[in-house]
Amino acid sequence: MDWGTDLWDQYDGIDKHTQSGLDLVDRYVKFVKERTEIEQNYAKQLRNLSKKYLKRGSKEEQECGFTNHQSFQDILNELNDYAGQRELIAEHMMTGICVELTKYLQDLKQERKTYLADAKKAQQNLEISFKQLENTKRRFAKEWGEAEKATQQAEKIENDTNAIKADVEKVKQHAHVKTHTAEECRNDYAAQLQKYNKEQNTFYYTEIPQLFNKLQDMDERRIRSLAEGYSQFADIEKKVLPIITKCLDGISMAGRNTNGKQDSMRFIEQHKSGFERPAEVDFEDYSQGIKPASSDANLNQPKIRTKLWPFSHKKTKVCTLHTTSHTTLH
Amino acid sequence: MDWGTDLWDQYDGIDKHTQSGLDLVDRYVKFVKERTEIEQNYAKQLRNLSKKYLKRGSKEEQECGFTNHQSFQDILNELNDYAGQRELIAEHMMTGICVELTKYLQDLKQERKTYLADAKKAQQNLEISFKQLENTKRRFAKEWGEAEKATQQAEKIENDTNAIKADVEKVKQHAHVKTHTAEECRNDYAAQLQKYNKEQNTFYYTEIPQLFNKLQDMDERRIRSLAEGYSQFADIEKKVLPIITKCLDGISMAGRNTNGKQDSMRFIEQHKSGFERPAEVDFEDYSQGIKPASSDANLNQPKIRTKLWPFSHKKTKVCTLHTTSHTTLH
Q: What is the extent of the structural domain holding B141?
């Protein structure tokens, strides 16, 4: 079974079928192009989101290395890598599918046009040859008819006893010439018929089968490349899935690395003043000869003590001070 | 190590630290919300893309079931399922992370406000009590000074031989009263001091440690929930990865199911007319007594034959005809 043998009389069908095949490739390329645009846009939005919140993260807290702040930063970085993978998908679809198939499509279009044109040309030649056959045949029929008439006239005049000998010769001569011409036309017709049948045979058993089989082969090649393009649509994304999974693992890790206990302890290290809590206020017994001074001076010491909290021991720049606070306060 | 013991004098630091902790949760919720919007939009675009090309696929070719057309339709359907999974990610992030954490955040804000307010109140009470202590102490100092003066005057007048007995009694009486009052102030001061030291002790060793430890516990709970939200950000997507992989496998399958040979054979089945190719045209020998008729009539038969292709055997509706074509032509 092949187009050349089984569809020898389906030129129009093959024309239509191969065209719709190329249209499908064209439609698929457009489809993938639109997918890559969606993917590009998606990646861009994820990148901007990650950038936006990376900036926002308060500098101080990052330096302080609290796990619950650090982990958010880690997640934002992973999301940025994630976006990079989506961009990769878009790029590979564009180069691996769209560019490839578009190039290939041009060649196929050209190839198809050539085959169909060759078939049309061969058909026109056959039709011209057939018209010539009709003409030679018509001429043979006409000449033979006239030759027969002339022969009958010759026979008639020969049997006419009153005929003049010279006239008889003239008519016989005429009939002879006519018959001769008719025989020549008969030979022309026979030759043209042979020529036509040879051409018709070549047309139906060689030219058309070859051209239609080339079109079938072309269409099957088209489908192979299209199938390749179909598979790539999935394979390209499958290829990046492991890295995408790595990004997701990184995010899970950031979740596990977030440790509340650790952060409260770190906060203590950074803010501990090292001061003792105020001792009891002493009794000042003026009756035992202590001189009552100005109450201000007198009450000065306990006043400082009780005012220890919450107004003193402020740490303005926590992180930078936090190491020194150890050395100075222990 | 805990905030209550080690950060007893860091009210402002704890205030600032716990606030920035809640701000981080708030920022994370906003971040996830924006991610879900991106995801929703991405899914929507993929859905529309798939719908757009599903519609476009020529009805006829789908019915004809050419693998290379059918596979494209399969891919579009898989892409639609794929989009559904992305939507699922967006929904689960919204409900599982944003809604949960936002609810939780409100409770934490309230809880924090309460603890900080209680600490401030306790501190104000202590300061009031300290002012009372200062007052009793000042009064004691003053009264004791006056009592001493009165006592000295009494001693002076006693040793004065010219003094009138009545005056001596009066001055001694006055000194006695003053000393008595001073002793009462001394007792008030002692009592107030005891009261204050008790309150100060409760403040520094009970109230503040308890409140600051509650704040530490609250902050650690906040971090645990935030860490949970971090992990979910990855887990929600991990959960749909197997189904997304199924979609990709479906697309690869569509690629493998695309078979060019099969499609050309199917095309033959649908378009084969079953007609034989034209036989050779016969020689019509009018010289053997065949009557030459009107050339039209005469040339009628071969004319049809050679005109077989490409004008006849048209199949208008391929698919519906294709079964009958078998029955009628074989």
A: 14-268
Percent of the residues in chain B that have a pLDDT greater than 90, as a whole number: 75
- Is residue B155 situated within a structural domain? yes
User: Do residues B186 and A287 touch, judged by C-beta distance below 8 A?
Assistant: yes
Is A23 within a domain? yes
CATH number of the CATH domain containing A244: 1.20.1270.60
Summarize pLDDT for B50-60 with one digit per residue, the tens: 999 996 655 65
Taking the Cβ of residue B184 and every Cβ of chain A, the question of whether any pair is shorter than 8 Å is answered with: no
pLDDT tens-digit series, residues B115-135: 999 999 999 999 999 999 999
Top pLDDT among A314 and A139 is at A139
How many A/B residue pairs have CB atoms within 8 Å?
Answer: 340
Distance, in Å, from the CA atom of B60 to the CA atom of A26, rounded to the nearest integer, reads 18
Q: Measuring CA to CA, which residue among B185, B175, B76 is closest to residue B136? A: B185
- How are the residues of chain B apportioned to helix, strand and coil, as percentages rounded to the nearest 5? 85, 0, 15
A65 CB within 8 Å of a chain B CB: no
Residue with tokens 């919720």: B29
C-beta of residue A139 within 8 angstroms of C-beta of residue A186: no
pLDDT band at A160 (very low <50, low <70, confident <90, very high): confident
Q: Is residue B140 part of a domain?
A: yes
Query: Residue B231 in contact with residue A252, Cβ under 8 Å?
Result: yes
Amino acid identity of residue B212, one-letter, is: F
Question: A309 lies in a domain?
Answer: no
| Residue reference for tokens 């002012």 | B131
B133 and A281 within 8 Å at the Cβ level: the answer is yes
Cα–Cα distance, A261 to A68 (Å, whole number): 11
Amino acid at A304: I
Q: What average pLDDT is seen over chain B?
A: 87
Is the complex ipTM higher than 0.85? no
CB nearest B9 (choices: A227, A237, A275): A275
Question: If pLDDT is split at 50, 70 and 90, which confidence band does A61 have?
Answer: low
Query: Chain B partners of A55 at a C-beta cutoff of 8 Å?
Result: none
CA distance linking residue A283 with residue A267, whole number of Å: 37
Interchain CB distance below 8 Å, A310 and B123: yes
Domain count of the fold of chain B: 1
Q: Taking a contact as any Cβ pair under 8 Å apart, which residues of chain A between 203 and 232 contact chain B? A: 204-205, 208, 216, 219-224, 226-232
Q: Are A7 and A215 in contact (CB under 8 A)?
A: no
- Label residue A64 by pLDDT band (50, 70, 90): confident
Asked if A148 has any chain B CB less than 8 Å from its own CB, the reply is no
Phi then psi for B218, rounded to 5 degrees? -60, -45
> A93 to chain B: which residues are within 8 Å by CB?
none
A112-142 in b/e form (b: 16+ CB < 10 A) is: beebbeebeebbeebeebbeebbebbbbbbe
The token pair that represents A221 in the structure block: 């090649």
In this prediction, residue B64 carries a pLDDT of: 75
pLDDT above 60 (res A315): no
Note whether B215 and B3 are within 8 A (CB). Answer: yes
Low-confidence ranges of chain B (pLDDT < 50): 292-308, 310-330
B61 and B69 Cβ atoms separated by less than 8 Å: yes
CA distance B239 to A167: 116
Closest partner CB to B193 (pick from A56, A137, A283): A283
